[in-house]
Design brief:
By secondary structure, this protein is mostly helical. The protein is about 70% helix and about 0% strand. The chain has three domains: about 35 residues, no CATH class; about 30 residues; about 55 residues, no CATH class. It is flat, with a radius of gyration of 21 Å.
């Protein structure tokens, strides 16, 4: 079975859905199965949590340093400042993730509304 196996409009979508589900869900099921047998305080689980946190931090850093779309038009200082403001709000609110995310968005969108980006067109 390949991406070009059928010549219909819906086949690429079905192929992507099946391929994505098989590759993602198989690892999720394996993780749940193995994770249920491992203590949360074991060295293996601490390592897994550290790696997962590092991956999330790397994705966020990538979005801040080299974003795409409209966010790329905002100055780096604004992106870093909104992330820092969101982090401060997160800590001030007793480590509530939603408060930090909303604060970061409010700072970033507020700056974009106050200083609109002029299009080159």
């Amino acid at each position: 079975m390949s991406f070009d196996a059928l010549d219909t409009w819906w086949w690429p979508y079905l192929f992507i859905l099946i391929a994505g589900a098989v590759t993602t869900d198989s690892w999720r099921f394996l993780g749940v199965w193995l994770g249920g047998k491992v203590s949360e305080e074991s060295d293996a689980m601490v390592f897994v949590r550290c790696v997962a946190t590092a991956l999330v931090a790397a994705v966020i850093a990538g979005l801040i340093v080299s974003p795409a779309g409209a966010l790329a038009a905002t100055p780096l200082a604004v992106r870093i400042g909104s992330a820092a403001g969101g982090f401060v709000a997160y800590l001030a609110a007793g480590k509530r993730v939603l408060v930090g995310v909303v604060a970061c968005e409010v700072i970033l969108v507020g700056w974009m509304l106050l200083f609109p980006i002029e299009s080159a067109a």
